[in-house]
Design a protein that fits this description.
It is a single chain. With about 300 residues, the protein is of the alpha/beta class. The chain has one domain: Rossmann fold (3-Layer(aba) Sandwich), CATH 3.40.50.720. The protein has 9 helices and 5 strands. The protein has a 5-stranded mixed sheet with strand order 1-2-3-4-5, with helices on both faces. Helix 2 runs parallel beside helix 3, helix 3 runs parallel beside helix 4 and helix 4 packs across helix 9. The longest helix is centred in the middle third of the chain and has 25 residues. It is globular, with a radius of gyration of 19 Å. This is Dehydrogenase/reductase 13. It holds the Pfam family adh_short_C2.
């Protein structure tokens, strides 16, 4: 929510002393919102050095859509956002893209004939979640191949099982008091879950490992389905269609990319997109660091995604 996003940005400003931290609202379930966000970001921000795709869902809740909501939020939305922000990433190279994945990708299986099918019931949600995590790993792999030589490197990062509100959000209310102590004992705190994504975003010398999957701050091997280059490229092409990307948007989005492609699947259009909300940096009574060369911006996500194992 905006309230929690603004609160997180405020806390970061207070703790870091960096008054350039802002919050921008983005609804990954809406392709129109993704495009509006990208337009607002590119018009207001001169730099993009690190893009971390951390937002995600593990359940559709009570929402019933004509498309695969889990795939839309966990993969298609981040896929489209990456494409729209590529010009800024390339201009700021060396830069990085980190896709927060999960060990659940090992259970994933992509059916390209029914990739965007609606998800109904908790059993389908569990399967669809694993499928989207496999899509995350393949996306990072193909993105690294597509951007080889541009100075942009890409990584899939598994934060581990994280104890956050996302974990309890889909648990029946009567069960939450029983699970909270157990979650505190066996799951990682959000700070611990952030370590591997931060490692992929900041660690020097891992550029040759672009496209690989990281867990516990080191490279881990993935099953054959997650290192299938043909499947990764096929997913790339399918994702372009599902995201409504036109022929000229594959590499460098142009001005025409701000309109939805009517030739794409009509069920993916979301009318009346909500304009992104941008919080303003607060003036500081203290002297702030020199930001004349590098402008720090953080798209605040309150908690790391809970990974289902």
């Amino acid at each position: 929510s905006r309230e929690r996003g603004e609160a997180a940005a405020f806390d970061l400003r207070q703790e870091s002393g960096n008054n350039e931290v802002i919050f921008m609202a983005l609804d990954l379930a809406s392709l129109a919102s993704v495009r509006a966000f990208a337009t607002a970001f590119l018009s207001s921000e001169p730099r993009l050095d690190i893009l971390i795709h951390n937002a995600g869902i593990s359940s559709c809740g009570r929402t019933r859509e004509a498309f695969n909501l889990l795939l839309r939020v966990n993969h298609i939305g981040p896929f489209l956002l990456t494409h729209l922000l590529l010009p800024c990433l390339k201009a700021c190279a060396p830069s990085r893209v980190v896709v927060v994945a999960s060990a659940a990708h090992c259970r994933g299986r992509l059916d390209f004939k029914r990739l965007d099918r609606p998800v109904v019931g908790w059993r389908q949600e569990l399967r669809a979640y694993a499928d989207t995590k496999l899509a995350n790993v393949l996306f990072a792999r193909e993105l690294a191949n597509q951007l080889e030589g541009t100075g942009i490197t890409c990584y899939a990062a598994h934060p581990g099982p994280v104890n956050s509100e996302l974990f309890l959000r889909h648990v029946p209310g009567w069960l939450r008091p029983l699970l909270r102590p157990l979650a505190w004992l066996v799951l990682r705190a959000p700070k611990g879950g952030a370590q591997t994504p931060l490692y992929c975003a900041l660690q020097e010398g891992i550029e040759p490992l672009s496209g690989r999957y990281f867990a516990n701050c080191h490279v881990e091997e993935v099953p054959p389905a997650a290192r299938d280059d043909r499947a990764a490229h096929r997913l790339w092409e399918a994702s372009k269609r599902l995201a409504g990307l036109g022929p000229g948007e594959d590499a460098e989005p142009d001005e025409d990319s701000q309109s939805e492609d009517s030739g794409a699947l009509s069920s993916l259009s979301t009318p009346h997109p909500e304009e992104p909300t941008v919080s303003q940096p607060y003036p500081s009574p203290q002297s702030s660091p020199d930001l004349s060369k590098v402008t720090h911006r953080i798209q605040a996500k309150v908690e790391p995604e809970t990974q289902l194992s």
